[in-house]
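Q: Here's a chain of 115 amino acids. Please give me its 3D structure as tokens.
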Amino acid sequence: MDSYWVRVLIALLLGGFLLVQARSVGGWPRRQRAFQLAAAAMVAFALLNANLALGFNSETFQLVIGILGTALFIGAIASLVLSLRDGEAREQRAKIEDAAREFREQRARERNGKR
């Protein structure tokens, strides 16, 4: 199998996985948008590799699709950063902080019990 087709398959699989992730974070609109943009970027990269695998040598098409995929990927990163900055993951962060605090307290109790 040609390496371009392997890349197409991997990009489509990753795009599908990212769409599933987008559906699972319904309460966080910016994070959902980040996953959707990343999935669209993967589809663009799959299209670019399919174009190469089929032997179409349209440099303009390849350039446009490459720029589009890169722009979508950058948009996904920006949306994810905005999601984290605006506190869409505040509940998760609070749970992690509580678990870390509990672990530190348990460790301190264990240390005091050994002495």
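Q: Can you summarize the key feature?
A: The two ends are 65 Å apart (CA to CA).
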